[in-house]
Write a structure and sequence with these properties.
126 residues; 1 helix; disordered N terminus
Length: 126
Amino acid sequence: MFFKGIALLLLLLGLPAAAQEGPSDRQFLISPDTCVAINKGRTCYTQVSIEWQLPEHGDYCLFLEGQGTPLACWKNRRSGQWQFEFASATSIQVLLKRQDTIMLSKEIQVNWVYESQRRKRNWRLF
């Protein structure tokens, strides 16, 4: 009887609970998540693909930080995809919101190859 109780307890502890929310229930994938410009301060351009997934259905909108207009919205969904042309000279957060609540966020980083070199050019005629 004692061994049956232990075996039952180990069996119950070993099974994952279906109602628990795991890390795989929340996904926010941005590709590419880094944009590289030639010189510092220059605008970086790239095509960005976004995929998201949440555990519950709802009305969600995708925003760039600091912008009031959404890139895209979904009604009664728990996942979505979106592509857009990214153009920025600085890194920026991508936000997935449900009403005013931020559900997911991730940064698109802007890097550069060369520091911006502003050379002072002295032109002499004589």
